[in-house]
Amino acid sequence: AQRVTQPEKLLSVFKGAPVELKCNYSYSGSPELFWYVQYSRQRLQLLLRHISRESIKGFTADLNKGETSFHLKKPFAQEEDSAMYYCALSEGDSWGKLQFGAGTQVVVTP
Amino acid sequence: NAGVMQNPRHLVRRRGQEARLRCSPMKGHSHVYWYRQLPEEGLKFMVYLQKENIIDESGMPKERFSAEFPKEGPSILRIQQVVRGDSAAYFCASSPQGDNEQFFGPGTRLTVL
């Protein structure tokens, strides 16, 4: 069963505009949620995880257990934010096994 | 620290041959994970290993696929008698003991002719 859903395959925004990438999950326990990013010709790298509650490169994400969501937001998109973004879930009883969404391609145009 | 290393980066095999994919974790990392990515899809978990132990292989196909992480040397993902449907990008990740943050390698792109 698909645990992580990213409804948008492609998100095109103008530089300076806000950007929000949606991520919904299905899991009734206590999940750990991550956002990974893959820039062009680079490897997949962690952007942020919900337990650290940090803002990285201007991005934030809040875990909403009521809505089972972990949307990624940035108030002012930059051209260097153009990349592929993956939401991932780790279930409490399957530590180490990350379940990824299909990914959202973000294109920021000047 | 060179990061997670995978080789080869590209591998071409004919149907029925064996494919061996190697992964060297980051220095100090004792946990290794393998994922597969089919075109237009996200990464799918295959197997989680610690040194000399398979912790979770719930994502491994029942036949032809095996993985190991020996006491010395890299982790190996082996696919026997490859078929066209095995064509995909295979990613390895590693993490230190007690931390769920996984660091990914560049991947191996397997093409089966």
Q: Please state roughly what percent of the residues of chain B sit in beta strands, choosing from under 5%, 5-15%, 15-25%, 25-35%, 35-45% or over 45%.
A: over 45%
Summarize the largest interface: chains and residue counts.
Answer: A-B, 21 and 27 residues
What form of chain A results from the Cα inertia axes? Answer: globular
Largest sheet of chain B: 7 strands, mixed
Largest beta-sheet details of chain A: 6 strands, mixed
Number of helices of chain B: 0
Question: Which blocks of ≥5 consecutive residues of chain B have pLDDT under 50?
Answer: none
What is the succession of H and E elements of chain A?
EEEEEEEEEEE
Please give a structural write-up.
The complex is a heterodimer of chains A (110) and B (113). Chain A is an all-beta fold and 110 residues long. Chain A contains no helices and eleven strands. Chain A has strands at residues 4-5, 10-14, 19-21, 24-25, 32-38, 45-49, 60-61, 72-74, 83-90, 98-100, 104-109. In chain A, the strands form three sheets. In chain A, strands 2, 5, 6, 9, 10 and 11 form a six-stranded mixed β-sheet that branches. The radius of gyration of chain A is 13 Å and the shape is globular. With 113 residues, chain B is mainly β. Chain B has no helices and eleven strands. The model of chain B has no long low-confidence stretch (mean pLDDT 94). Classes of the chains: A mainly beta (110), B mainly beta (113). Chains A and B meet through β6 and β10 of A and β4, β5, β9 and β10 of B.
Brief description of this entry?
The complex is a heterodimer of chains A (110) and B (113). Chain A contains no helices and 11 strands.
